[in-house]
């Protein structure tokens, strides 16, 4: 309960806690001003790219990924930096789970490599002269179909640092494919999560606060949406249009928030009866202000935990569709590489195994981090406060 009180106190900022040096001349905080300027610049850049250039300089998926990064900066990183004491408290609880700490470091490396790696290295290209090249740490029988770019000795073909993780059947470097696959996985996981969490939180808190007819209408719509086969809709859309990562993200993002809405509604219904909500209503605060300043901050712990656990499921969705050949073949993906190597497991096992290992550990790491965040952020969880 003590941790719960601290969470509520930090979520609803008191008058004496306000740093007035951090407030702009028009009554806006620095974060609000920076968010407004960044949002305006982002909107101008998108409009320029869409309407004033013949060919889009940046794809729709990359624009959404940039928006997701901005949201992470202003709604995750900035608040954590502002509330250092609360952040330190949560970190002490989180680091008790060593597996989660190691997983978080691994995910940070994957995120950095996936975000900036494709900007620094060229996209993998066909090179039939380097087909089936083994990884640098491996030697294979030269009788196995391979051009043996590395040194051949005593009937063995040795790997080379030019292709440190080997190559596929068409000569593409697996190391580069893995890096580009990191970007695809991060884009699918983070962008779809942002869409799902944003819509689900708004719908869930609105349903809980207004109750009555509004609650009934919103929840019945959620029931209908959750019974709709999103997978078949994705198949139909990819049949009618060219398959792309953007379509996958938007379809599953805008149709996959029902479970989050129900989870948030359940939590918000408990908060709806708290005394500070009633006090705000009696003081004449607007419904939107109460939802934005009281309900949403006090369900944020539940939302953050759910968001972390959602990401691996979306990554697996994309890998599954790529494995089945239902995504853009020109976009390197872990699932796509695994599919290309499934017929060579006996002679060139590294083609399917290496990206499969990265996929496995990425999904596992998100699950570890999600479990640790749930224990750290939920004051009702077991453990010392």
UniProtKB/TrEMBL annotation:
SUPFAM superfamilies: MetI-like. It is found in: Cell membrane. Residues 182-370 form the ABC transmembrane type-1 domain. It is a multi-pass membrane protein. The chain crosses the membrane at residues 33-51, 63-81, 101-121, 188-210, 302-327, 347-370. GO terms for cellular component: plasma membrane. This is ABC-type transport system permease. It comes from Haloferax elongans ATCC BAA-1513.
């Amino acid at each position: 309960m003590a941790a719960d009180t601290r969470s509520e106190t930090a979520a609803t900022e008191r008058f004496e806690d306000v740093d007035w040096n951090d407030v702009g001349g028009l009554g806006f905080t620095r974060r609000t001003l920076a968010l407004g300027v960044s949002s305006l610049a982002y909107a101008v850049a998108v409009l320029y790219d869409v309407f004033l250039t013949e060919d889009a300089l940046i794809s729709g998926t990359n624009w959404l990924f940039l928006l997701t990064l901005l949201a992470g900066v202003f709604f995750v990183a900035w608040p954590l930096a502002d509330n250092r004491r609360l952040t330190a408290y949560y970190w002490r609880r989180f680091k008790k789970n060593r597996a989660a700490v190691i997983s978080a470091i691994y995910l940070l490396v994957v995120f950095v490599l996936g975000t900036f790696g494709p900007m620094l290295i060229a996209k993998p290209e066909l090179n039939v002269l380097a087909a089936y090249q083994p990884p640098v740490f491996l030697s294979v029988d030269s009788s196995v179909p391979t051009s043996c770019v590395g040194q051949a000795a005593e009937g063995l073909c040795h790997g080379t640092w030019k292709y440190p993780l080997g190559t596929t059947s068409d000569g593409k470097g697996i190391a580069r494919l893995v890096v580009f696959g990191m970007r695809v996985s991060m884009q699918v996981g983070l962008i779809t999560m942002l869409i799902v969490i944003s819509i689900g939180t708004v719908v869930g808190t609105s349903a809980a606060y207004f109750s009555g007819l509004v609650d009934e209408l919103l929840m019945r719509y959620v029931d209908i949406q959750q019974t709709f086969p999103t997978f078949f809709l994705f198949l139909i859309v990819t049949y009618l249009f060219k398959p792309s990562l953007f379509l996958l993200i938007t379809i599953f993002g805008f149709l996959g928030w029902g479970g989050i809405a129900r989870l948030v509604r359940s939590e918000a219904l408990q908060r709806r009866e708290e005394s500070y909500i009633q006090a705000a209503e009696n003081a004449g605060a607007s419904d939107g202000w109460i939802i934005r300043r009281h309900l949403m901050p006090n369900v944020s712990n539940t939302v953050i935990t759910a968001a972390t656990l959602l990401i691996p499921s979306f990554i697996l969705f994309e890998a599954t569709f790529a494995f089945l050949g239902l995504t853009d073949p020109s976009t390197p993906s872990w699932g796509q590489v695994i599919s290309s190597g499934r017929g060579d497991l006996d002679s060139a096992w590294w083609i399917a195994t290496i990206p499969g290992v990265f996929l496995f550990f990425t999904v596992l790491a998100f699950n570890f981090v999600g479990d640790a965040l749930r224990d750290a952020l939920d004051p009702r969880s077991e453990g010392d406060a």
